[in-house]
Amino acid sequence: MKKSLILTLFLIAGYGQSIFAQNNMNLLGKLTYSQELSDIWGYVDSVGNEYAIVGVYDGVSVVDITDPANPNELFFFPGASSTWRDIKTWNKHAYITNESNGGLFIIDLSNLPNTTTPATSSYNGSSYQFSSAHNLYIDENGVAYIIGANYSNGGAILLDLTIDPMNPLEIGIFDDYYLHDGMARGDTLWGGAINNGFLVAVDVSNKSNPQILGTKNTPNNFTHNCWISDDGNTLYTTDEKSNAFIAAYDVSNISNITELDRIRSNDGSGVIPHNTHFMNEYLITSYYKDGVTIHDVSRPNNMVEVGNYDTYTQGAGNGFSGAWGVYPWLPSGNVIVSDINNGLYILGVTYLRGCYLEGQVTAFGSGSPITNATVEILTTANTDNTDISGNYNFGLSAAGSYQVVFSAPGYNNDTLPATLTNGVLTTLDAQLDSLVAFSIPGNVNELSSGLPVGGANVRLESNSGSYDFVTDGSGNFSLSSIFEGSYNIVAGKWGYITKCFSMYIDSTTSSLSISLDTGLYDDFSFDFGWTEVGTANAGNWERDN
After folding, report:
1. Which of left, alpha, beta for 456 (phi over 0: left; psi -120 to 50: alpha)?
2. What's the pLDDT tens digit per position in 118-127?
3. Calpha distance 96→176 (Å, rounded)
4. Positions in the chain whose pLDDT score sits under 70
5. How confident is the model over 378-394, as pLDDT tens digits?
6. Domain 355-432 carries which CATH code?
7. What gap in Å lies between CA 62 and CA 106, rounded to an integer?
8. DSSP character at residue 401
9. What distance in Å separates the CA atoms of residue 336 and residue 331, rounded to the nearest whole number?
């Protein structure tokens, strides 16, 4: 049956690829819908035609994308209105869940490319009855995991699809707590326990009696999805929170799961990662308002972003708009993306390995590791900070010759050259000279009278650190063990106007004298300890952090 909603088809001419190209990804085709989209999955028929199966608010869309410039919707299956639809395929069948009702919807795809309307069925369970579920996964053995269903705690209901794909058979349940997403490989179910804030590994070798093997909290304690590497040694997760991370974990010993690395797209923008998938040592991730990203994870302890395509051109940052799902496993190599607001995207990809930069920062002379030193590749937005052992590891996608700046509080900066090459590890160690600490006196006085101001707050901030002082009864304070450099200086006290200025301080600076004008002023640089009283139920003044 054809979709009754209006579709707009964007045909991309040859010149369009260069217009829409972003970092190592380019637009091949697009199909828009009048309803919002949710997740997406791919399918290939017996003669090699490629299809996108798209979750739409009011149903499921099956689109022939063999010619990516001319996507053609073959079928639309109406369903319960739902913001959430998840899709997986197995053995020439598609399985779809939603969070409204109807249970598990099944489409027989075996007749494709024949355009006769496929047979369908619905399944609601027997012992573990459900009408909705957030997600599902089907493993290599034809076991479906119905995840986040409205049965009991909403863990994972296990179904056997091998006997009759249109009529699943219940074989077990994991119900210790709610799972939001998950995937299985072999005898292990990996789940995102979003409400608990951790990933969980579950032994499902005995389908009727799953057992928890281990858990690990993820960086933002809101574990959304996870995907295991092909060798089974590394698990990758996303947290569905603003400014959250994609994280990598060594799971070779499930009793001791260890974080290897974490990375985020468009650092500081507040954008939310959604679903990440592992393929050929890459992570392909739907990233809401940042579209889709590709990370080289061939070195799991040093994930490097090497590609991206922004499907959401209406804005950036926090919010649940943009790319919901992505599917990277089509034989053509094309990647399909479901953008909630903008439709189906078919993208071409050039997969490149990252340029890896790693090393150690130590103190000159002693060789002691410097913790939290900043390493910056000039002319790029790429920075990293050293760990407790002084080690850093990051990289970028574009090969070339760069200048790398090393800095740390209490040390002189150092700039070193580095030639970075795709797929090659460059090791660059740095030894930083210690700055010489010195002390100078300071005082705060009243501008009009010259009288000392006791109890005044003074703060100095620079790249080498932050220093806070309170003047004594004579208005004096001592700057002890500070380092040469440019400082932002703030001084204030209740009853005086806070003063802010910048100053270069070195060992030849004889003293720091600050004069404050009288007045009632508070810009919240300091906590002057005032309180408010009143009888109003709302609108009272308060101090925020």
Report:
1. beta
2. 999 999 999 9
3. 24
4. 1-21, 541-545
5. 999 899 999 999 999 99
6. 2.60.40.1120
7. 13
8. E
9. 12
Q: In angstroms, rounded to a whole number, what is the distance separating the alpha carbons of residues 306 and 182? A: 25
Total Cβ atoms within 10 A of residue 9? 14
Closest residue by Cα to residue 284 from 12, 55, 25: 25
Two structure tokens written together for 11: 């045909």
What is the b/e burial string over 199-212, where b = at least 16 CB atoms within 10 angstroms of the residue's CB? bbbbbbeebeebee
Which long-range contacts does 235-240 make (Cβ < 8 Å, 24+ apart)?
235/190, 235/199, 236/276, 236/278, 236/283, 236/297, 237/192, 237/199, 237/276, 238/273, 238/274, 238/275, 238/276, 238/285, 239/273, 240/194, 240/272, 240/273, 240/274
Sign of CA dihedral 233, 239, 245, 246: positive
- Give the rounded distance of the alpha carbon of 19 from its chain centre: 27
Sheet of 85-90, strands arranged across? 85-90, 93-98, 104-108, 120-123
Q: Outline which parts of the chain fall under CATH 2.130.10.10.
A: 8-349
The token duo for 20 is 């829409």
In whole angstroms, what is the distance from residue 473 CA to residue 487 CA?
25
Spatial distance between the Cα atoms of 94 and 343, rounded to a whole number of angstroms: 20
pLDDT at 373: 96
Fold held by 438-516? Immunoglobulin-like (2.60.40)
Query: In this predicted structure, what is the pLDDT of residue 8?
Result: 38
Do the Cβ atoms of 176 and 153 come closer than 8 Å? yes
Give dist(CA 62, CA 530) in Å, integer.
Answer: 64
Residue 496 has which token pair?
Answer: 């005086």
Class at the top of the CATH hierarchy for domain 8-349: mainly beta
Q: CATH 2.60.40.1120: which residues of the chain?
A: 355-432, 438-516
Q: What is d(CA 459, CA 437) in angstroms, rounded to the nearest whole number?
A: 18
| Look-up of token digits 């494709």 | 112
Phi first, then psi: give them for residue 17, nearest 5 degrees: -60, -40
- Taken in order 271, 272, 277, 281, the sign of the CA dihedral is positive
**Rounded CA gap, 145 and 192, in Å?**
13
The H or E element that residue 38 is part of is: strand 37-44
Cα–Cα distances (Å) from 7 to 51, 66, 291, 342, in that order, read 17, 18, 21, 11
Q: For the chain, how big is the Rg over CA atoms in Å?
A: 29
Instruction: Please state, in angstroms and rounded to a whole number, the distance separating the CA atoms of residues 149 and 135.
Output: 8
DSSP tally for the chain: helices H, then strands E? 1, 44
3-state secondary structure 381-399: CCEEECCCCCEEEEEECCC
